[in-house]
Amino acid sequence: MSLKTLACVVTGILASSLAEATPLRVLTYNLRYITSGDKGELAWTARRDQAAELIKNDAADIVGIQEGLPPMMNDLADRLPGYAVIGVGREDGVDQGEYAALLVKADRFRIQESGTFWLSDTPEICNSCTWGNTVTRICTWAKLYDRETKRTFHFFNTHLDHASELARKKGTDLILARIAERKPQGPVILTGDFNSVDDNPLHAAIRATGMADIWKTLNASVPPEESGTFHEFTGVTNRGRIDFIYASPDLKGLESMIVRSSKNGNWPSDHFPVRATLDW
Fold it and tell me: Is the pLDDT of residue 64 over 50?
């Protein structure tokens, strides 16, 4: 082997090792929408600094947001410089209604493609509902190029219906169909508030595709009474775990936790966000 060839091999090995040594930090976060019923410390204006601080302190590379109304997304953008926002309002496909947004670090990721589809029989029709749900539901996705690892992957984020089991099942089926259609068929991450605990059949359908429930994989011994993610501003841990991060087999979970930070007994949301660190 010539010195030139050897140098190229060594350079390639070093570059590969460097790329594989850069993990992805993912967060899924239901912010709790703005409502007149939330007063005082529960109001979004009282929570927004803490919510942004949680994302910043967690050093998330990508965040899947649920229940982000336009003023909330603007507040996060003001407080989190360096993140690009991907998504649209579910009511008009522009800026009306809740987002299922992605926040991605602009210096790390190049957005190659992105979009939003409605969870209905007419997924390209804005504000469509056809499965018995009275609330419009969406999924936002992006194809991202990671400048640090020189790799491309897909990220999907959703918020399934709170009331209709049929809408949750049909919505999951549609998301899985879109994931199966992605090009290239490389790594994929799915986050969201699924409004269903992990023994619901929709989670079995997701796992059947090969994707893993990262938190469960790494925290299998944690009992259900300590696994809740929905707490209604109480901080209790025994409510259902309904917020998930899934990843395809080519992404390995290094660690995952339910983030339960608060300040002076006040919580930034009625959900605990879930974090996962993934390696290639």
Answer: yes
Q: Is the Cβ–Cβ distance between 99 and 137 less than 8 Å?
A: no
Residue in this structure with the two tokens 């007419």, named with its chain if needed: 122
Alpha-carbon separation of residue 114 from 101, 182, 190, 204, 251 (angstroms): 11, 11, 14, 27, 21
Are the CB atoms for 238 and 256 separated by under 8 Å? no
Q: Is 136 helix (H, G, I), strand (E, B) or coil?
A: coil
From residue 197, give the alpha-carbon distance in Å to each of 118, 138, 169, 212, 241: 22, 20, 13, 15, 5
* Helix/strand/coil for 154: strand
| Cβ neighbours of residue 172 closer than 8 Å, sequence gap 6 or more | 160, 194, 202, 205, 206
**Assigned CATH topology for domain 24-279:** Deoxyribonuclease I; Chain A (3.60.10)
- DSSP letter at 271? B
For the chain, domain boundaries: 24-279
CA 230 to chain centre: 16
pTM over 0.70: yes
**Region 166-181 average pLDDT:** 98
Cα angle, residue 138 at apex, residues 136 and 142 outer, rounded to 5°: 165
DSSP letter string over 162-183? SS-HHHHHHHHHHHHHHHHT-S
Q: Are strands 188-193 and 151-159 parallel, antiparallel or unpaired?
A: parallel
- Over pLDDT 90: what percentage of the chain? 92
Rounded distance between C-alpha atoms, residue 173 and residue 234, angstroms: 33
Q: Is the pLDDT of residue 11 over 50?
A: no
